[in-house]
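Pipeline run #58 for the internal structure catalog. This entry was flagged by the ingest filter as a single-chain record with no existing model, so it goes straight to prediction. Upstream metadata was stripped on purpose; only the residue string is passed forward. Reviewer on rotation: M.T. Logging verbosity set to normal.
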Amino acid sequence: MSEPSDPHTGAAAWRNWAGDERCGPAAILHPASIEELSAVVQRAAREGRRVRVAGAGHSFPDIACTDGLMLKLERLAEVIDVDRESGLVRVQAGITIHGLSRHLAEHGLALENLGDIDVQTIAGAVSTATHGTGAKLGNISSQVRELTLVLADGSTLSCSAQQEPEVFRAARVGLGALGVIAEVTLQCVPAFTLRGVDAPAPLEETLAGFEELALANDHFELFVFPHTDTALTRTNNRTEEPPRPRGRAADYLNDVLLTNHAFGLFCRLGRRLPARIPQINRTVTRLASRSVRVERSDAIFASPRLVRFTEMEYALPREHTTTAVRRVMEMIEQRGFAVPFPIEVRTVAPDDALISTAAGRESGFVAVHMYEGMAWEPYFRAVEAIMDELDGRPHWGKRHFQTAATLRERYPDWDRFQAVRARLDPEGRFANAWSARVLGDV
């Protein structure tokens, strides 16, 4: 089960998808059953080591990093049970969203909403409140109906709205701080088809109508490149039309050559010539055109991400969303930041997980990115200052500079989460530098 990864030292080594967070765990382990998972945690307790779980590595900060034992759950990736009548599907925690969607389609089912990346493990997506867009739809964790955790002593605990409800509300967005998620039961829906329309539109007109657009469509989001006045809108709605999947050649042309390779070329040019970025962004925006797709929901939601970047995203009260976008755009111009990536804007319905970013409020999400190899911290700090003034909550799987002291007041149920954490992990078996900074000591 051990994975010594560095051929020079024999020590384990790990890095995230973006490649800018790295650590050297004492060992990287790959348990293949709940029994093996429990044994690993018991071993850690005997040896006085800490434990963290790394999913697909798609979180941007050091949330998964550890010098203790790192667990990877790709050998725990099975669909355990499917009840087509109720839509309840029980899976092991290491299954990827892509793999899960494929299995669900075979049973005529789907997840009601997804983000635009599907390589994450279901446990990682749940734990960090990963989300798609839809003003009437919650994040992925809101689709969870039961969780099985391996606790700090190696025992297992199942929780749901009926059994251990307080633990359930904490563990649905648990950040890996309560235990290791081993199994997840999800509420799925009958498979459905989406009609997706991508279209450029005037930015000010789109921002002025943002609330109406968010509420009138099943899924609405917009992208806007700094130094431009055009919104690139994406609208997905359920349809009874028969799916018209693109061929493999069309998929490659659109998703790989145009969306990734061409955009990557523009980003590399911008990194080399930062002063040209405003012109490059206007060129990229002018190249955007209207397109329509009618496909199975998961095929519409997700697309490949080959261009590497790092990201910050904030959840805001939805009424502050457009103010945040305008202020970030103005700040970029005023401060002269070279930003080759667009600002992304989405919406999410409220939920009741104790420290979900959308807990208790209708939310708008504003995300900013920076291309690999370019300085991101000054830009992200300037964005965060705006988000702080607008009652923002940082996405747990993305970069921010908050601490437990600055976050506590943003979550009405913060202390309830900490009480569950102290109960389930009193010795801090699942702690690391990230949790000490962001959640505080146990």
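catalog note: Confidence is low (pLDDT under 50) at residues 1-10.
catalog note: Residues 193-394 form a domain with the Vanillyl-alcohol Oxidase; Chain A, domain 3 fold (CATH 3.40.462.10).
status: ready for reviewer M.T.
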